[in-house]
Amino acid sequence: MTDLFDPPDITASESEAENDMAVPVRFRLNHEDVEVHVQDPTTPLLDVLRLELGLTGTKSGCAIGYCGACTVIVDDRAVPSCLQMVGLVEGRDVRTVEDLGGAGGLDPVQRAFVKCSGLQCGFCTPGHVMALRALLDEDPDPGEERLRETVDGNYCRCTGYVKILDSAREAVALHRAAASEEVH
């Protein structure tokens, strides 16, 4: 008798048949061209990022596009990756939190969160960071209302948003300073 929880035995020919039915999806991920093969192009980008590509910085929260924990940047816009079908990123540019920082250190948004203690458990932080990064890429000098709207788009259970808003304001200042250094 087989256990209901044991996966069925899949022969090599069945596995090859599944791979033959996979759809290739090509896109640019964190400045690198990637190709993934998915059985279903409506699979959420979040699942592909975490399960297929091992990029676990993007968090899985509500799975309905409400909480903001899974925010990534697609073609310069912050989007909930739980709602973004992977088939629709074909030929597009996707950035995850793993793309920020690098040899030069942390991204100004990340530095702001560290400096202002804009996190507690840290679960919502990647979503906040990516949403603010997209905002600053679009508008390097957003007003208070835009900052509040951006922060409000990501649910946080721990902080009460005070430190997150402080971090957002600091991110603007650090972004401006970094841009000023690039000009000189």
Please specify the SSE layout and strand pairing.
Layout: H1 12-21, E1 23-29, E2 32-38, H2 45-52, E3 71-74, E4 77-80, E5 93-95, H3 108-115, H4 125-138, H5 144-152, H6 162-183
Parallel strand pairs: 1-5
Antiparallel strand pairs: 1-2, 3-4, 3-5
Written description of the protein model:
- The protein has 184 residues and is of the alpha+beta class.
- The chain has 6 helices and 5 strands.
- The protein has helices at 12-21, 45-52, 108-115, 125-138, 144-152, 162-183; strands at residues 23-29, 32-38, 71-74, 77-80, 93-95.
- The chain has a 5-stranded mixed β-sheet, sandwiched between helices.
Overall pLDDT confidence:
90
| Widest sheet, order of strands | 2-1-5-3-4
Could you tell me the radius of gyration in angstroms? 19 Å
SS content category: alpha+beta
The unreliable regions are: none
Task: Report how far the terminal alpha carbons are from each other.
Answer: 74 Å
The oligomeric status of these chains comes to: single chain
Query: Considering DSSP H and I runs of 4 or more, what fraction of the residues is helical?
Result: 25-40%
Biggest β-sheet: count, sense, barrel?
A: 5 strands, mixed
What's the total helix number? 6
Provide the β-strand percentage band.
5-15%
Total beta strand runs = 5
Order of helices and strands: HEEHEEEHHHH
User: What would you call the shape?
Assistant: globular
